[in-house]
Amino acid sequence: MAFEAYRSQTATRSPRRRLTYALSLALHAALIAAGVAYSFWHIEELSPPNLRVTFMSASPPPPPPPPPAGGGAARKKIAQKPKTAIVPTKPPDIVQPRETPPPKPEPKDDDDDDDDQPSGVKGGAKDGVPGGKIGGTPGGTLGGTPGGTPGGTVAAPVVAKLLPPNMGALQKISGADPAFPPALRKPGSSYAVLAKICVSRTGDVESVTIMKKADPVLDANVISAVKGWRFRPLMANNTAVPFCYPATFEFKSQ
Known about the structure:
By secondary structure, the chain is an alpha+beta fold.
């Protein structure tokens, strides 16, 4: 039953489909024909370009030169002109100059020199040693220290002894303490300057070295004040010796 119903539907619809296909084909064909006709009607004619060609001829070649006077004899002379031979030049030989040794000085006779000129220096002592210094000590050594003892030895340099702070302070005889600048006296402010003081054999201050700085003005006050101090000479084996010791200067404002 279903197959028969499908066949009946197909039979009823087939004439309509055929008519629709025919109308669509006719419509498309008409459109294509109209497009082709429209393209043929609107073709623009292209005019060929106008070209102008100019032909140029080359200039004629120059005439040949006239023959030389004398005819064939002159030509033969020109043809038989001898060629000069090129002789290669030989470079000159390079000779290295020889070094001329300087003339050797002639040996002088010591006896003749002693007879002609004295070997001593003007202003020296009679029967002095050749090469000695004018004004030297008789019997001294050549190159010795002026003012030294004849036959003596050069004394070794004395090294300053390093003392503790309390021992160095006990050697002090006189001297004012460094001043505390008013500009630095602020409430609750405190400064500490550590200095190394070196004293000579006579008790004078030789040098003051700031080891711990606090303020430039305060450091300068410490150096200027300590250089005016006087110390008791330090004795070692009954001999005065130089010494150094560290000193701390504290400044506090109340």
